Amino acid sequence: MMSTSLKTEPNLFNYRKYWASRFGTSPVLPMSQMEMDGLGWDSCDVILVTGDAYIDHPSFGMALIGRLLEAQGFRVGIISQPDWTSAADFSKLGRPNLFFGVTGGNMDSMVNRYTSDKKIRSNDAYTANGLAGKRPDRAVNVYSHRCREAYKDVPIIIGGIEASLRRIAHYDYWSDKVRKSVLLDSKADLLVYGNAERQIVEIAHRLGQGELISELKGIRGTVHFVKQIPEGWVVKDSTDIDKPGVLSPIQNPYQEEPACDKKSDNSSPNEKDISIPISSVGMLKQLIRDQRSQTVIRLPSYEFVKDDPILYAHASRVMHGETNPGNARPLIQSHGSRELWINPPPIPLTTKEMDGVFDLPYSRVPHKAYGNANVPAFEMIQHSVNIMRGCFGGCTFCSITEHEGRIIQSRSEDSIIREIEAIRDTSPAFTGHISDLGGPTANMYRLACKDEKIEAACRKPSCVYPGICPNLNTDHKPLIKLYRRARALPGIKKIFIASGLRYDLAVESPEYVKELVTHHVGGYLKIAPEHTEQGPLSKMMKPGIGTYDRFKQMFDKYSKEAGKEQYLIPYFIAAHPGTTDNDMLNLALWLKRHGFRADQVQAFLPSPMSIATAMYHSGKDTLHKVSRAAEDMPIPKTIKQRRLHKAFLRYHDSKNWPLLRDALNAMGRNDLIGNGKHHLIPSYQPKGTIESSGKLQHFKTKYTGLDSNRGEKKYRKTKK
């Protein structure tokens, strides 16, 4: 019998260790038979296959999962970036006793390989020396097929960001179609989504005790097939929850009923026609709760959503409404004759468990097989410390919530300090500078709902949009205390904060802004307004530009008080759903007025399963109920318009001036073309550039702009 009711999960480290724990801890997880022989192993219990170089560091998913399984007593081997053209590399460690664990790596393999213009990237930050081409397209599918070729009867479990974001029928930007769940395409046995510690530990122990992979049903954070609806379960059609209809201007897009009101009972409508006297209302509430825990929501089938963008948008809305571990119900979606069962998200880790995961004996360096090669992603994070996970921001273009969840899971201060000391004492390249104390965001450490019951019942997709929820604790004091303790450590010269800052939260704590600006900014601080115009901002679920202005005032004030010349570096998204040409023009004028010149820019990339991707595919505002009669929203889809939107962000680049002149003339804004300070672009074209060399038409048809890797955006202040 499957059960997904909310319960206290066993501590990750309270399982009885597997018998192979007698082999002890490995200096690094082995990648060859020779290393296995050196450890005295005749086989691996689990083999993890990854599209990344193997870095034994907790910021790399396979290292974290591998070390966690090792701590449970299992012998774990790593196959990193195998040759996928045959099964040979997939058998080099022999047959795993329990299962293959397969991931595309720290990034979705398609996002890793292609830009938002669908051009192949010239490098791969997760590969030795940054070489491109070391992983296939749709790596999870390809690796799984090769594992099956190598050992037909070995269970295959897929996970990581690629599996997480493709766990149901999903729109795929690169093929411009809705694809099946990756569980079907990969032909794997089980999918784990989100941060997989709880799931993978339970799975490994149950398989180690002799259970079959087909018996592992109902584990939170997993997706599997069912032949029929289990006994005792009630099926609720998704259209009963979110019936496609006219747009209604509701503040809370996914809430079935008020969840943040202490006076409400926070239960969903009764799912059976039950007639009970009004005097028995208490019994009715309990009956509803009991029934809800045994209710599965049926989404429209793959065959329907692949051909109907409106039904796809509807399915996306319902799926995003079932992401809170405190109240999420399982989902079921047919793919032909197969029934895909998506269990609710895993219960977040406690602080003690988070500490245990990050305190595992990582060597914190690349595997010796790479010699002296540089792995760019490792160089970026080797001296940074992850202090938390999760994000309650709910930005529609972001996939953090779909993967890590919206409930913040924080490490203890002592655990973080131990890691900083380990970096100081063991890293040969350490110069006294910690490059980041952060995570998905810089300043959500230990922030949570003020009431656990409210948090467990809430269905809002964001705790900070359209404004900060009154039930959210925004106290930054624990983070300030951590900063002060960390920078007081002997041998620590400077601690930078490089993770994305939620400035709408920061302005609620002037003391935090002062601490940050005075001690933890290295001249420039990057933040993400994403846009200046309310149209696109409302579709992103981001605060208005006025909040940025408030933060900038604080930033400038405390920089001046500290006697430092420091600058804010805002970055923006081009071509996001809901953005018009006029929106981008106004953003360009804002940039010029404030003296910013973007060296590199980002165009919206529709990642699988995000809310903004559902907007992109359906052409509708999916933050509200959708119907075929609903008003279409502007979606910059064509190559021409996407290039234009990027060009507005780089209004200062002479290569873009011909394109912008044509656009401004067409928009009736030729008043912005001229050689004065109030003009956006000049009327002349510098000698040697595109127009003057007779290549304007070629430019109009071929120009694609710069690579749009968000992590590499740079800005420079315009000289006055």
| Mean pLDDT across every amino acid position | 89
Q: What is the makeup of the main sheet? A: 10 strands, mixed
> What structural class do helix, strand and pairing data support?
alpha/beta
Oligomer: single chain
Rounded Rg? 26 Å
User: Within the CATH hierarchy, at the fold level, what is the topology of the domain at 19-221?
Assistant: Rossmann fold
Counting DSSP E segments of at least 2 residues, the number of strands comes to 23
Q: In whole angstroms, how far apart are the ends? A: 70 Å
Percentage of residues assigned to helices: 25-40%
| Parts with pLDDT < 50 across at least 5 consecutive residues | 1-6, 245-279, 692-720
User: Any guess at the CATH architecture of the domain at 19-221?
Assistant: 3-Layer(aba) Sandwich
Q: What top-tier CATH class of the domain at 19-221 fits best?
A: Alpha Beta
Tell me the β content: 5-15%
Give the helix tally. 26
Strand neighbour order, sheet with most strands: 2-1-3-4-7-8-12-11-10-9
CATH superfamily of the domain at 19-221: Cobalamin-binding domain
What is the general shape? globular
